[in-house]
Design a protein that fits this description.
The complex is a heterodimer of chains A (about 425) and B (about 80).
Chain A (H helix, E strand, L loop, with lengths): L10 H16 L3 E12 L5 E6 L4 E6 L1 H4 L11 E11 L4 E11 L4 H16 L16 E6 L4 H13 L4 E6 L7 H15 L4 E5 L14 H9 L4 E4 L8 H5 L2 E2 L3 H47 L3 H44 L1 H6 L4 E4 L17 E5 L4 E11 L6 E6 L1
Parallel strand pairs in A: 3-5, 6-7, 6-8, 8-9, 9-10
Antiparallel strand pairs in A: 1-2, 1-4, 2-3, 4-5, 11-12, 12-13, 13-14
Helix pairs in contact in A: 4-8, 5-6
Chain B lengths: L3 H20 L4 H23 L5 E7 L2 E6 L8
Antiparallel strand pairs in B: 1-2
The chains are: A alpha/beta (about 425), B alpha+beta (about 80).
Chain lengths: ~425, ~80
């Protein structure tokens, strides 16, 4: 093609033309995905950074008006998807992406914001167990931050009405979702602290999607919970995700009902504890009384009156006397039995009995001996003869020799 | 208004009395006196827990001043 037919652009013209091509091609906006690097915030508030992948780099700018809405922080190294138009910057002959919106790649913006805030609060010590306050022994006055028309307040009051009817409730009604809800919740917590006279605060909502619960994941709420002087029970989130509010709170439970049950359980535990103490006291005192009773009984035994002792001796004496009497009676009767038998035996042996049968007994008058041998006496000797009845004196006439024996037989002459 | 503090103090006193009584170091007269005190404390604590008559109020802040209003609980037990 001859040179004169050629259209020759000035640098500015071609730059402008390129701008038009870009405008026509990318004018409605494009989505570009890449990793953030060289992120800078200018004094003007504009963000400047690069998007890159393995092979290429694309400059990007996000102006202050656009980036004010950003929920998370852009940092080097994070993967993002940006929406914007490609613009040519003439003075440098460069093109760049003018970013309107940024979404973190993979997770949602909110989720990333959540992770980033969580990281920051963690560093600030918001989740530190040492910062957690202990619940009072018994919360008699309970502050509640939740919606005045939601299920949460209804559930909590229902449980308290049945189980802890002595507990006073101060509700600080707030909006729990929508723009500004987190700030409203935070203000509620602050005002209940300011109001004071409360033992605990329950921060709650009655369930919903992660989206609905978002206010409890935002910084104002987390900060107010952290700064509360009054211990806080968080009952937000149900089973899905643990909210930041849950993590910062002194205690967290899954449901409003569970929060109220903590109070009811506390009450019941305390009641049974008091009952046990009461019983323990009763046992101790009863023990004491019983040990004193035993001691008194012991003393009473060792401290008998003299009269009692005299009576005791008298009684002993009576008993001994009775025993003695018995013995004597027995001895007497035994002895008399013995005597009777002796007498009978004696009687049988009596010579008088023999004499009564016709025998007689002769006694020498000279020596007084019974005469048993006729040859031991001599004629002329005087003899006394005793009979069964009476006796007589006689003189021996003759000694007779008996043929049948060698014994003599005296012929006695009266 | 219910006094959380006095409740906790009373409960502590009660626990101390129980300890003293179970130590067996008191005379009978002292024991009976402490027992009587203890029963009073236990009754006080129990009735504080069981006492009916709760209030449910909502807190409003108007012109920098707090105001409590009776909160209508809506439907009672269904």
């Amino acid at each position: 093609m001859p040179l004169k037919d050629k259209h020759i652009y000035t640098v500015s013209q071609i730059t402008q033309e390129i701008g038009v091509v870009f405008e026509n091609t990318f004018g409605l906006g494009v989505w570009v995905e890449g990793e953030v690097s060289n992120f800078k915030v200018a004094a003007s508030g504009h963000f400047y950074f690069s998007l890159k992948d393995e092979k290429s780099v694309l400059g990007a700018a996000m102006f202050a008006g656009a980036n004010r809405q950003l929920k998370f922080k852009i940092e080097d190294g994070i993967k993002v998807v940006c929406f914007g138009r490609v613009d040519v910057y003439g003075p440098r002959g460069q093109y760049q992406l003018i970013v309107d919106r940024v979404e973190p790649k993979g997770v949602g913006a909110r989720q990333l914001a959540f992770e980033q805030l969580k990281e920051r609060l963690l560093k600030e010590g918001f989740f530190d167990p040492a910062h957690k306050k202990e619940l009072p022994l018994m919360p008699f006055r309970v502050g509640i931050v939740t919606s005045g028309i939601g299920a949460a307040i209804r559930d909590i009051l229902g449980i308290l009405r049945k189980g802890a009817f002595g507990v006073d409730v101060v509700l600080r009604p707030v909006r729990v979702q929508g723009e500004g809800a987190s700030l409203e919740i935070a203000r509620g917590i602050e005002e209940l602290n300011e109001f004071g006279k409360l033992d605990i605060i329950i921060v709650s909502r009655g369930g919903g999607s992660a989206e609905d619960l978002w206010a409890f994941n935002e910084e104002p709420c987390a900060r107010a919970v952290y700064n509360s002087r009054i211990p806080i029970i968080s009952a937000v989130g149900h089973q899905i995700n643990t909210s930041l509010c849950d993590l910062v709170a002194d205690i967290f439970v899954e449901t409003p009902t569970a929060a109220a049950k903590i109070i009811v359980d506390r009450k019941n535990e305390l009641l049974s504890q008091i009952n046990e103490l009461r019983h323990a006291m009763g046992f101790s005192v009863l023990d004491k009384i019983n040990s004193f009773k035993n001691e008194v009984t012991r003393f009473r035994h060792s401290l008998k009156s003299p009269l009692d002792r005299l009576r005791e001796k008298e009684q002993l004496l009576d008993e001994l006397a009775a025993a003695l009497n018995n013995n004597i009676q027995r001895i007497i009767s035994i002895t008399s039995e013995k005597m009777k038998s002796f007498i009978q035996r004696l009687d049988a042996l009596s010579p008088l009995k023999v004499l009564a049968r016709g025998y007689s007994l002769s006694i020498s008058q000279e020596d007084g001996c019974v005469i048993k041998d006729a040859f031991k006496i001599s004629p002329g000797q005087r003899v006394k003869t005793i009979l069964g009845k009476g006796a007589f004196l006689s003189t021996v006439n003759e000694i007779i020799k008996k043929e049948s024996g060698d014994e003599g037989e005296a012929i006695i002459r009266r | 208004m219910k006094e959380k503090q006095s409740f906790e103090d009373d409960l502590k006193k009660l626990q101390k009395i129980v300890e003293e009584l179970s130590s067996g170091k008191l005379t009978l007269g002292e024991s009976l006196k402490r027992y009587e005190e203890g029963i009073k404390l236990a009754q006080g604590c129990s009735s504080l827990l069981e006492e009916a008559g709760r209030k449910v109020e909502s807190l409003m802040k108007k012109d920098g001043k707090f105001a409590l209003e009776k909160f209508e609980e809506g439907q009672e037990d269904k």
